[in-house]
Amino acid sequence: MLYIILFILFILLFIFGMTIIRFGLFNLSANKLKGWMTKLTSNPLRGMVTGTFVTALLQSSSAVMVITIGLISAKIMTFPQSIGIILGTNIGTTFKTELITFNLDAILVPLAIIGALLTFFKNIKIRSIGMLLFGIAAVFTAMKGFELLAHPLTSLPFIQNFILSINDNLILSLVTGAAITAVIQSSTAMTGITMGFLTAGLLQLDAGIAIVFGANIGTCITALIASIGGGKESRLAAYAHVYLNVFGVLLFVPFIPALSANAHLLADTKMVQLAHISVLFNVVSSLIVLPFATKFGELILRLHGDKPK
User: Which H or E element spans position 40?
Assistant: First the structure.
């Protein structure tokens, strides 16, 4: 029970760290992000580049989707403009996946102390930098916790049996990634947990890949919730997010064994291999849809209501 409580606390610490990083970065960029998103979405390609950049900056695809839906609800942005942004969020979110593969163990304590001290400054930029540093320290501490707790947790019979079952079943791994991400509202946290079990040698890489793919579906729940009461176009953007992510996962699932078998060509460690595969998955699936973005938008309109006036 103690290990489970600690594991939950590390999940909360990870999400807290990501939230603090996001606040720090958002404060540094002020409201310029919303201006970029509304001005630089005249076509799907520009929208995708903007979505990628803003998501990488905010370190959260869910946050960018909530902002996008808010702009649509306020009639500042239209549903067709959001298609490119959605494609970009899937690429931009991989930046933080790559970030958490770095080894910062030696500087975590100094980073946390410096970050905490800077948050007491009155200057908003200095305070935001402090939030950024403290958030990074929290995220990497949580990652270390996932790794250290992986072995003790699997000594518990029900968790051991569950890990063994998902190692042998890609569909179950996929559903697990989607379900847990929907609950904890963070695909990055789900990826971090997966990396911890991979590093401990308890999870097979193909199962880890399936979990991360599932996390891409689970993260759509945030957009769906944000669209409630936001009008027809807001709901269309949320549906588009779901369809795009589900399409990408269905497209890549048959290739999971091949990706796992050739992952050694990408990196030496499983954790970095998983991060690189996540980038590959999101970039390729977004680029495949990009030429058909306008047609895709029309399809969503046909499926979920008349074309908005």
Answer: none
The pTM of this model reads 0.80
CA 301 – CA 131 distance, rounded (Å): 41
CB under 8 Å to 86, separation ≥6 — which residues?
51, 65, 68, 237, 240, 241, 244
Cα 53 from chain centroid? 14
Question: Per-residue DSSP letters for 195-243?
Answer: HHHHHTT-S-HHHHHHHHHHHHHHTHHHHHHHHTTS-HHHHHHHHHHHH
Query: What span, in angstroms and rounded, lies between the C-alpha atoms of 227 and 240?
Result: 12
Residue 255 φ/ψ, nearest 5 degrees: -95, 0
- Convert the pLDDT of each residue in 183-230 to its tens digit: 877 788 888 888 888 888 888 999 999 999 999 999 888 778 877 776
For residue 15, the Cα-to-chain-centroid distance in whole angstroms is: 11
End-to-end CA distance of the chain: 55
One-letter amino acid of 216: N
pLDDT tens figures, 16-65: 887 787 778 777 665 666 666 666 666 788 888 888 888 887 767 777 88
In Å, the largest CA–CA distance within the chain is 58
Q: How far is CA 127 from the centre of its chain?
A: 25
Going 274 to 279 to 280 to 282, the CA torsion angle's sign is positive
